[in-house]
Specification:
Blueprint (H helix, E strand, L loop, with lengths): L1 H4 L2 E2 L6 E2 L5 E6 L3 E5 L5 H6 L33 E8 L2 E7 L2 H9 L9
Antiparallel strand pairs: 1-2, 3-4, 3-5, 5-6
Length: 117
């Protein structure tokens, strides 16, 4: 029971990340995962040979939307994908990518709320 109360640690900086805050990234297949306290931490993590944590292959991200295209390039996703879920209180805001590189480029550009030209 105490495991639920213990915050996860940011994969990049080591800061505590509460269950209802931060970003969770999962690569499928393989169920590798990472946790970030800030979206900006995705960029240096991806640039420096990403270090993944082992994940539970049975535990999929809890999202209600079906994500079938890459958020960055709009190409259809295959079985290989990277899912980033923003935890904001009880809300879960998902985005999916065809690669870590596309996720990092999207994050570097400002993520979901980047200004569009």
């Amino acid at each position: 029971m105490t495991a639920d109360l213990t915050p996860e640690r940011c994969t990049w900086c080591g800061a505590a990340v509460d269950r209802d805050d931060g970003y969770r990234v999962r690569e499928d297949p393989g169920a590798r995962s990472a946790v970030f306290c800030r979206l900006e931490h995705v960029v240096p993590w991806a640039m420096r040979d990403p270090r993944w944590e082992a994940g539970d292959p049975e535990a999929a991200p809890v999202v209600e939307e079906v994500l079938d295209t890459c958020t960055r390039c709009d190409q259809p996703l295959t079985d290989v994908r990277v899912t980033l879920v923003r935890h904001r209180a009880e809300h879960r805001i998902p985005d999916a990518f065809c690669s870590v590189d596309h996720m990092a480029a999207w994050a570097n550009a400002g993520g979901r709320y980047a200004r569009r030209a």
